[in-house]
Amino acid sequence: MTDVNVSGLSIGILGGTGDQGKGLARRFALAGHPVLIGSRSAGRAQEAAETIGEGARGAANADVAKEADLVIVAVPYEGHKALLESLRAELAGKIVVDCVNPLGFDKQGAYALPVEEGSAAQQAAAVLPDSRVVAAFHHVSAVVLLDPAVDKVDLDVLVLGDDREATETVQALAAVIPGVRGVYGGRLRNAHQVEAFTANLISINRRYKAHAGLRITDI
Amino acid sequence: MTDVNVSGLSIGILGGTGDQGKGLARRFALAGHPVLIGSRSAGRAQEAAETIGEGARGAANADVAKEADLVIVAVPYEGHKALLESLRAELAGKIVVDCVNPLGFDKQGAYALPVEEGSAAQQAAAVLPDSRVVAAFHHVSAVVLLDPAVDKVDLDVLVLGDDREATETVQALAAVIPGVRGVYGGRLRNAHQVEAFTANLISINRRYKAHAGLRITDI
Protein backbone atom coordinates (compact mmCIF):
# COMPACT_ATOMS: atom_id res chain seq x y z
CA MET A 1 0.00 0.00 0.00
CA THR A 2 3.09 2.25 0.13
CA ASP A 3 6.65 1.94 -1.15
CA VAL A 4 8.49 3.60 1.72
CA ASN A 5 11.69 1.70 2.55
CA VAL A 6 11.89 0.80 6.23
CA SER A 7 14.66 -1.76 6.08
CA GLY A 8 17.17 -1.41 8.89
CA LEU A 9 14.88 0.84 10.94
CA SER A 10 15.37 0.06 14.62
CA ILE A 11 12.13 -0.46 16.53
CA GLY A 12 11.72 0.29 20.22
CA ILE A 13 8.71 -1.09 22.05
CA LEU A 14 7.72 0.56 25.30
CA GLY A 15 5.86 -1.97 27.39
CA GLY A 16 7.45 -4.65 25.28
CA THR A 17 7.12 -7.26 28.02
CA GLY A 18 3.32 -7.40 27.59
CA ASP A 19 1.78 -9.84 25.14
CA GLN A 20 0.97 -7.32 22.41
CA GLY A 21 4.42 -5.73 22.59
CA LYS A 22 6.20 -9.07 22.68
CA GLY A 23 4.20 -10.32 19.70
CA LEU A 24 5.11 -7.26 17.63
CA ALA A 25 8.73 -7.46 18.77
CA ARG A 26 8.92 -11.05 17.61
CA ARG A 27 7.52 -10.29 14.15
CA PHE A 28 9.75 -7.23 13.58
CA ALA A 29 12.82 -9.13 14.76
CA LEU A 30 11.94 -12.01 12.42
CA ALA A 31 11.72 -9.46 9.58
CA GLY A 32 15.31 -8.40 10.30
CA HIS A 33 14.73 -5.18 12.25
CA PRO A 34 16.88 -4.35 15.25
CA VAL A 35 14.36 -4.58 18.11
CA LEU A 36 14.64 -2.99 21.54
CA ILE A 37 12.22 -4.07 24.20
CA GLY A 38 11.50 -1.52 26.90
CA SER A 39 10.12 -1.99 30.38
CA ARG A 40 10.21 -0.18 33.70
CA SER A 41 12.72 -2.83 34.71
CA ALA A 42 15.71 -3.32 32.40
CA GLY A 43 16.06 -6.83 33.79
CA ARG A 44 12.54 -7.85 32.85
CA ALA A 45 13.03 -6.28 29.41
CA GLN A 46 16.16 -8.37 28.90
CA GLU A 47 14.32 -11.53 29.94
CA ALA A 48 11.56 -10.80 27.43
CA ALA A 49 14.16 -10.15 24.72
CA GLU A 50 15.75 -13.52 25.43
CA THR A 51 12.42 -15.35 25.02
CA ILE A 52 12.06 -13.68 21.63
CA GLY A 53 15.62 -14.23 20.43
CA GLU A 54 16.31 -13.08 16.84
CA GLY A 55 18.74 -10.46 18.15
CA ALA A 56 16.15 -8.57 20.23
CA ARG A 57 17.62 -6.63 23.15
CA GLY A 58 16.05 -5.32 26.34
CA ALA A 59 16.55 -2.08 28.29
CA ALA A 60 14.75 0.44 30.48
CA ASN A 61 11.97 2.37 28.69
CA ALA A 62 13.95 5.64 28.69
CA ASP A 63 17.00 4.05 27.06
CA VAL A 64 14.81 2.40 24.44
CA ALA A 65 13.03 5.69 23.72
CA LYS A 66 16.38 7.41 23.25
CA GLU A 67 18.05 4.77 21.12
CA ALA A 68 15.38 3.47 18.72
CA ASP A 69 14.59 5.09 15.37
CA LEU A 70 10.86 4.49 15.79
CA VAL A 71 9.08 3.84 19.06
CA ILE A 72 5.92 1.80 19.61
CA VAL A 73 3.86 2.43 22.74
CA ALA A 74 2.28 -0.80 23.96
CA VAL A 75 1.81 -0.08 27.65
CA PRO A 76 -1.45 -0.57 29.57
CA TYR A 77 -3.68 2.49 29.27
CA GLU A 78 -3.44 3.19 33.01
CA GLY A 79 0.23 4.09 32.75
CA HIS A 80 0.12 5.61 29.26
CA LYS A 81 0.01 9.34 29.94
CA ALA A 82 2.52 9.38 32.79
CA LEU A 83 5.05 7.29 30.87
CA LEU A 84 4.89 9.50 27.79
CA GLU A 85 5.18 12.66 29.89
CA SER A 86 8.36 11.26 31.39
CA LEU A 87 9.86 10.52 27.94
CA ARG A 88 9.04 13.76 26.11
CA ALA A 89 12.68 14.68 25.50
CA GLU A 90 13.75 11.19 24.39
CA LEU A 91 10.84 10.91 21.93
CA ALA A 92 11.20 14.39 20.38
CA GLY A 93 11.45 14.27 16.58
CA LYS A 94 10.61 10.57 16.38
CA ILE A 95 7.71 8.64 14.97
CA VAL A 96 5.80 7.36 17.99
CA VAL A 97 3.28 4.63 17.21
CA ASP A 98 0.49 4.35 19.75
CA CYS A 99 -1.31 1.01 19.83
CA VAL A 100 -2.99 1.40 23.20
CA ASN A 101 -6.66 0.40 23.55
CA PRO A 102 -8.37 2.13 26.47
CA LEU A 103 -10.80 -0.60 27.52
CA GLY A 104 -12.67 -1.59 30.62
CA PHE A 105 -13.85 -5.11 31.42
CA ASP A 106 -16.82 -6.42 33.38
CA LYS A 107 -19.02 -9.53 33.39
CA GLN A 108 -20.48 -8.57 30.01
CA GLY A 109 -17.07 -8.30 28.39
CA ALA A 110 -15.03 -5.34 27.16
CA TYR A 111 -16.14 -1.77 26.60
CA ALA A 112 -14.46 1.47 25.57
CA LEU A 113 -13.26 3.83 28.28
CA PRO A 114 -13.75 7.56 27.80
CA VAL A 115 -10.49 9.45 27.13
CA GLU A 116 -10.39 13.17 27.82
CA GLU A 117 -8.33 13.88 24.70
CA GLY A 118 -10.62 11.70 22.55
CA SER A 119 -8.35 8.67 22.21
CA ALA A 120 -5.09 7.28 23.54
CA ALA A 121 -3.42 8.41 20.32
CA GLN A 122 -4.66 11.98 20.72
CA GLN A 123 -3.52 11.87 24.33
CA ALA A 124 -0.05 10.87 23.10
CA ALA A 125 -0.07 13.70 20.54
CA ALA A 126 -1.08 16.18 23.26
CA VAL A 127 1.66 15.00 25.61
CA LEU A 128 4.31 14.75 22.86
CA PRO A 129 3.99 17.92 20.75
CA ASP A 130 7.49 17.43 19.30
CA SER A 131 6.92 13.82 18.19
CA ARG A 132 5.18 12.47 15.11
CA VAL A 133 2.36 10.44 16.63
CA VAL A 134 0.72 7.71 14.58
CA ALA A 135 -1.93 5.22 15.75
CA ALA A 136 -1.66 1.61 14.55
CA PHE A 137 -1.51 -2.09 15.52
CA HIS A 138 -4.64 -1.93 17.72
CA HIS A 139 -6.18 -5.16 16.47
CA VAL A 140 -3.22 -7.51 16.33
CA SER A 141 -3.74 -10.74 18.23
CA ALA A 142 -0.82 -11.40 20.55
CA VAL A 143 -1.63 -15.11 20.43
CA VAL A 144 -1.34 -15.12 16.64
CA LEU A 145 1.82 -12.98 16.57
CA LEU A 146 3.54 -15.23 19.10
CA ASP A 147 2.45 -18.52 17.51
CA PRO A 148 5.41 -20.08 15.64
CA ALA A 149 2.91 -22.11 13.58
CA VAL A 150 1.42 -18.93 12.07
CA ASP A 151 3.62 -17.80 9.19
CA LYS A 152 1.04 -15.49 7.61
CA VAL A 153 -1.11 -13.12 9.66
CA ASP A 154 -4.58 -12.49 8.13
CA LEU A 155 -5.00 -8.82 9.07
CA ASP A 156 -5.05 -5.26 7.80
CA VAL A 157 -3.36 -2.89 10.23
CA LEU A 158 -5.16 0.46 10.19
CA VAL A 159 -2.69 3.34 10.40
CA LEU A 160 -3.97 6.76 11.48
CA GLY A 161 -2.25 10.09 11.67
CA ASP A 162 -1.97 13.65 10.43
CA ASP A 163 1.62 13.37 9.10
CA ARG A 164 1.57 11.60 5.77
CA GLU A 165 5.24 10.61 5.69
CA ALA A 166 4.93 9.17 9.18
CA THR A 167 1.75 7.19 8.40
CA GLU A 168 3.32 5.81 5.22
CA THR A 169 6.38 4.71 7.15
CA VAL A 170 4.20 2.85 9.65
CA GLN A 171 2.14 1.32 6.83
CA ALA A 172 5.37 -0.03 5.36
CA LEU A 173 6.45 -1.30 8.78
CA ALA A 174 3.15 -3.16 9.25
CA ALA A 175 3.67 -4.81 5.88
CA VAL A 176 6.95 -6.43 6.95
CA ILE A 177 4.79 -8.92 8.89
CA PRO A 178 3.90 -11.59 6.33
CA GLY A 179 0.25 -11.43 5.30
CA VAL A 180 -0.35 -7.99 6.81
CA ARG A 181 -1.22 -4.86 4.87
CA GLY A 182 -0.75 -1.39 6.38
CA VAL A 183 -3.84 0.57 5.39
CA TYR A 184 -4.27 4.30 5.92
CA GLY A 185 -7.30 4.65 8.21
CA GLY A 186 -7.80 8.40 8.66
CA ARG A 187 -6.66 11.25 10.85
CA LEU A 188 -5.88 11.04 14.56
CA ARG A 189 -9.26 12.57 15.39
CA ASN A 190 -10.79 9.32 14.12
CA ALA A 191 -8.56 7.08 16.26
CA HIS A 192 -11.02 6.61 19.12
CA GLN A 193 -13.30 4.24 17.25
CA VAL A 194 -10.37 2.17 15.99
CA GLU A 195 -9.08 1.74 19.54
CA ALA A 196 -12.58 1.06 20.88
CA PHE A 197 -13.31 -1.46 18.12
CA THR A 198 -10.99 -3.82 19.96
CA ALA A 199 -13.89 -4.33 22.39
CA ASN A 200 -16.02 -5.56 19.49
CA LEU A 201 -13.27 -7.93 18.36
CA ILE A 202 -13.18 -9.32 21.90
CA SER A 203 -16.96 -9.89 21.71
CA ILE A 204 -16.51 -11.59 18.34
CA ASN A 205 -13.71 -13.77 19.74
CA ARG A 206 -15.97 -14.89 22.57
CA ARG A 207 -18.95 -15.67 20.36
CA TYR A 208 -17.04 -17.42 17.58
CA LYS A 209 -14.07 -18.85 19.55
CA ALA A 210 -11.69 -17.02 17.22
CA HIS A 211 -8.76 -14.61 17.06
CA ALA A 212 -10.63 -12.16 14.88
CA GLY A 213 -9.04 -9.39 12.86
CA LEU A 214 -10.10 -6.98 10.13
CA ARG A 215 -9.68 -6.82 6.40
CA ILE A 216 -10.70 -3.78 4.40
CA THR A 217 -12.45 -4.72 1.15
CA ASP A 218 -12.20 -3.07 -2.29
CA ILE A 219 -8.66 -1.75 -1.81
CA MET B 1 -23.42 -17.46 10.77
CA THR B 2 -26.93 -18.28 12.05
CA ASP B 3 -29.70 -20.54 10.82
CA VAL B 4 -32.70 -18.38 11.70
CA ASN B 5 -35.31 -18.48 8.94
CA VAL B 6 -36.28 -14.99 7.80
CA SER B 7 -38.04 -15.89 4.55
CA GLY B 8 -41.21 -13.91 4.00
CA LEU B 9 -40.35 -11.34 6.68
CA SER B 10 -41.63 -7.94 5.56
CA ILE B 11 -39.06 -5.17 5.87
CA GLY B 12 -39.94 -1.54 6.49
CA ILE B 13 -37.29 1.11 5.90
CA LEU B 14 -37.80 4.47 7.57
CA GLY B 15 -35.95 7.07 5.54
CA GLY B 16 -36.02 4.66 2.65
CA THR B 17 -35.73 7.43 0.08
CA GLY B 18 -32.11 8.12 1.04
CA ASP B 19 -29.30 6.27 -0.71
CA GLN B 20 -28.51 3.83 2.11
CA GLY B 21 -32.19 2.98 2.64
CA LYS B 22 -32.86 2.63 -1.06
CA GLY B 23 -29.85 0.40 -1.51
CA LEU B 24 -30.97 -1.93 1.30
CA ALA B 25 -34.56 -1.87 0.01
CA ARG B 26 -33.37 -2.97 -3.41
CA ARG B 27 -31.33 -5.88 -2.07
CA PHE B 28 -34.08 -7.15 0.26
CA ALA B 29 -36.69 -6.88 -2.51
CA LEU B 30 -34.38 -8.78 -4.87
CA ALA B 31 -34.11 -11.49 -2.20
CA GLY B 32 -37.90 -11.86 -2.24
CA HIS B 33 -38.85 -9.90 0.88
CA PRO B 34 -41.92 -7.68 0.89
CA VAL B 35 -40.34 -4.21 1.21
CA LEU B 36 -42.04 -1.05 2.44
CA ILE B 37 -40.25 2.23 1.92
CA GLY B 38 -41.09 4.95 4.40
CA SER B 39 -40.68 8.69 4.12
CA ARG B 40 -42.23 11.80 5.63
CA SER B 41 -44.05 12.10 2.30
CA ALA B 42 -45.97 9.04 1.13
CA GLY B 43 -45.68 10.35 -2.43
CA ARG B 44 -41.87 10.48 -2.32
CA ALA B 45 -41.82 7.03 -0.76
CA GLN B 46 -43.94 5.68 -3.62
CA GLU B 47 -41.64 7.28 -6.19
CA ALA B 48 -38.60 5.65 -4.54
CA ALA B 49 -40.41 2.31 -4.50
CA GLU B 50 -41.09 2.59 -8.22
CA THR B 51 -37.42 3.21 -9.01
CA ILE B 52 -36.60 0.03 -7.08
CA GLY B 53 -39.36 -2.13 -8.54
CA GLU B 54 -39.32 -5.78 -7.41
CA GLY B 55 -42.67 -5.28 -5.68
CA ALA B 56 -41.44 -2.61 -3.25
CA ARG B 57 -44.16 -0.28 -1.98
CA GLY B 58 -43.98 3.21 -0.49
CA ALA B 59 -45.94 4.83 2.33
CA ALA B 60 -45.65 7.38 5.12
CA ASN B 61 -43.15 6.43 7.87
CA ALA B 62 -45.93 5.80 10.44
CA ASP B 63 -47.78 3.39 8.14
CA VAL B 64 -44.56 1.54 7.35
CA ALA B 65 -43.70 1.31 11.05
CA LYS B 66 -47.12 -0.14 11.78
CA GLU B 67 -47.27 -2.61 8.91
CA ALA B 68 -43.77 -4.10 8.56
CA ASP B 69 -42.58 -7.13 10.56
CA LEU B 70 -39.11 -5.63 11.03
CA VAL B 71 -38.21 -1.96 10.69
CA ILE B 72 -34.88 -0.48 9.60
CA VAL B 73 -34.06 3.08 10.61
CA ALA B 74 -32.04 4.79 7.87
CA VAL B 75 -32.85 8.44 8.46
CA PRO B 76 -30.28 11.23 8.81
CA TYR B 77 -29.04 11.52 12.40
CA GLU B 78 -30.53 15.01 12.76
CA GLY B 79 -34.09 13.68 12.61
CA HIS B 80 -33.42 10.34 14.31
CA LYS B 81 -34.59 10.92 17.86
CA ALA B 82 -37.71 12.93 17.02
CA LEU B 83 -38.87 10.42 14.41
CA LEU B 84 -38.49 7.46 16.77
CA GLU B 85 -40.27 9.31 19.58
CA SER B 86 -43.21 9.85 17.24
CA LEU B 87 -43.38 6.14 16.32
CA ARG B 88 -43.04 4.56 19.75
CA ALA B 89 -46.47 2.90 19.64
CA GLU B 90 -46.13 1.60 16.07
CA LEU B 91 -42.69 0.11 16.78
CA ALA B 92 -43.58 -1.56 20.10
CA GLY B 93 -42.71 -5.27 20.16
CA LYS B 94 -40.81 -5.15 16.87
CA ILE B 95 -37.20 -5.61 15.93
CA VAL B 96 -35.93 -2.13 15.06
CA VAL B 97 -32.61 -2.08 13.21
CA ASP B 98 -30.70 1.14 13.58
CA CYS B 99 -28.12 1.84 10.88
CA VAL B 100 -27.65 5.53 11.53
CA ASN B 101 -24.11 6.95 11.59
CA PRO B 102 -23.86 10.20 13.56
CA LEU B 103 -21.14 11.96 11.57
CA GLY B 104 -20.02 15.51 10.95
CA PHE B 105 -18.14 16.69 7.88
CA ASP B 106 -15.62 19.46 7.32
CA LYS B 107 -12.70 20.17 4.98
CA GLN B 108 -10.68 17.33 6.53
CA GLY B 109 -13.44 14.79 5.93
CA ALA B 110 -15.81 12.97 8.24
CA TYR B 111 -15.66 12.66 12.01
CA ALA B 112 -17.84 11.11 14.72
CA LEU B 113 -20.38 13.31 16.45
CA PRO B 114 -20.88 12.89 20.20
CA VAL B 115 -24.21 11.29 21.13
CA GLU B 116 -25.57 11.82 24.62
CA GLU B 117 -26.80 8.22 24.90
CA GLY B 118 -23.47 6.86 23.60
CA SER B 119 -24.57 5.97 20.07
CA ALA B 120 -27.52 6.32 17.73
CA ALA B 121 -28.46 2.73 18.53
CA GLN B 122 -28.47 3.39 22.28
CA GLN B 123 -30.51 6.52 21.63
CA ALA B 124 -33.04 4.36 19.76
CA ALA B 125 -33.11 1.87 22.63
CA ALA B 126 -33.68 4.69 25.13
CA VAL B 127 -36.51 6.17 23.07
CA LEU B 128 -38.10 2.79 22.26
CA PRO B 129 -38.11 0.79 25.51
CA ASP B 130 -40.76 -1.59 24.14
CA SER B 131 -38.89 -2.41 20.91
CA ARG B 132 -36.04 -4.83 20.30
CA VAL B 133 -33.30 -2.51 19.08
CA VAL B 134 -30.43 -3.93 17.05
CA ALA B 135 -27.61 -1.99 15.35
CA ALA B 136 -26.47 -3.12 11.88
CA PHE B 137 -25.81 -2.16 8.25
CA HIS B 138 -23.63 0.84 9.14
CA HIS B 139 -20.93 0.17 6.58
CA VAL B 140 -22.92 -0.78 3.50
CA SER B 141 -22.03 1.27 0.44
CA ALA B 142 -25.19 2.66 -1.17
CA VAL B 143 -23.33 2.86 -4.48
CA VAL B 144 -22.53 -0.84 -4.34
CA LEU B 145 -26.02 -1.89 -3.18
CA LEU B 146 -27.65 0.12 -5.98
CA ASP B 147 -25.26 -1.03 -8.72
CA PRO B 148 -26.97 -3.62 -10.92
CA ALA B 149 -23.52 -4.82 -12.04
CA VAL B 150 -22.65 -5.93 -8.48
CA ASP B 151 -24.17 -9.33 -7.84
CA LYS B 152 -22.04 -10.16 -4.80
CA VAL B 153 -21.34 -7.63 -2.06
CA ASP B 154 -17.94 -8.11 -0.38
CA LEU B 155 -18.87 -7.17 3.19
CA ASP B 156 -19.49 -8.46 6.68
CA VAL B 157 -22.40 -6.67 8.34
CA LEU B 158 -21.71 -6.27 12.04
CA VAL B 159 -24.86 -6.85 14.10
CA LEU B 160 -24.97 -5.54 17.67
CA GLY B 161 -27.57 -5.91 20.35
CA ASP B 162 -28.51 -7.28 23.75
CA ASP B 163 -31.34 -9.57 22.55
CA ARG B 164 -29.83 -12.71 21.07
CA GLU B 165 -32.88 -13.83 19.10
CA ALA B 166 -33.17 -10.36 17.58
CA THR B 167 -29.48 -10.13 16.63
CA GLU B 168 -29.61 -13.61 15.07
CA THR B 169 -32.64 -12.61 13.03
CA VAL B 170 -30.81 -9.55 11.72
CA GLN B 171 -27.69 -11.60 11.01
CA ALA B 172 -29.83 -13.91 8.89
CA LEU B 173 -31.42 -10.93 7.17
CA ALA B 174 -28.00 -9.49 6.29
CA ALA B 175 -27.04 -12.82 4.77
CA VAL B 176 -29.88 -12.70 2.21
CA ILE B 177 -27.72 -10.16 0.34
CA PRO B 178 -25.42 -12.29 -1.81
CA GLY B 179 -21.83 -12.22 -0.56
CA VAL B 180 -22.71 -10.69 2.81
CA ARG B 181 -22.26 -12.36 6.18
CA GLY B 182 -24.13 -11.15 9.25
CA VAL B 183 -21.59 -11.23 12.08
CA TYR B 184 -22.42 -10.69 15.74
CA GLY B 185 -20.40 -7.65 16.79
CA GLY B 186 -21.15 -7.15 20.48
CA ARG B 187 -23.64 -5.47 22.75
CA LEU B 188 -25.34 -2.14 22.11
CA ARG B 189 -22.94 -0.40 24.49
CA ASN B 190 -20.24 -1.09 21.89
CA ALA B 191 -22.23 0.36 18.97
CA HIS B 192 -20.65 3.82 19.05
CA GLN B 193 -17.37 2.75 17.54
CA VAL B 194 -19.07 0.75 14.81
CA GLU B 195 -21.14 3.78 13.81
CA ALA B 196 -18.13 6.09 14.06
CA PHE B 197 -15.95 3.72 12.04
CA THR B 198 -17.91 4.86 9.00
CA ALA B 199 -15.80 8.04 9.19
CA ASN B 200 -12.68 5.90 8.79
CA LEU B 201 -14.18 4.09 5.83
CA ILE B 202 -14.87 7.49 4.25
CA SER B 203 -11.19 8.41 4.77
CA ILE B 204 -10.16 5.10 3.23
CA ASN B 205 -12.48 5.66 0.27
CA ARG B 206 -10.90 9.06 -0.36
CA ARG B 207 -7.33 7.83 -0.11
CA TYR B 208 -7.77 4.66 -2.16
CA LYS B 209 -10.63 5.73 -4.49
CA ALA B 210 -12.70 2.77 -3.28
CA HIS B 211 -16.01 1.72 -1.78
CA ALA B 212 -14.38 0.09 1.23
CA GLY B 213 -16.07 -2.35 3.55
CA LEU B 214 -15.02 -4.71 6.33
CA ARG B 215 -14.41 -8.41 6.59
CA ILE B 216 -13.78 -10.10 9.93
CA THR B 217 -11.00 -12.68 9.72
CA ASP B 218 -10.73 -16.09 11.44
CA ILE B 219 -14.48 -16.68 11.68
TrEMBL record, chains A, B:
Matches recorded under Pfam families: F420_oxidored
Keyword Oxidoreductase: yes
Membrane-spanning parts: none
Annotated Pyrroline-5-carboxylate reductase catalytic N-terminal domain residues: 11-102
InterPro entries assigned: NAD(P)-bd_dom_sf, NpdG, P5C_Rdtase_cat_N, STEAP_metalloreductase
Keywords from the UniProt entry: Oxidoreductase
Name of this protein: NADPH-dependent F420 reductase
Organism per entry: Nonomuraea bangladeshensis
Organism ancestry: Bacteria, Bacillati, Actinomycetota, Actinomycetes, Streptosporangiales
The gene coding this protein: npdG
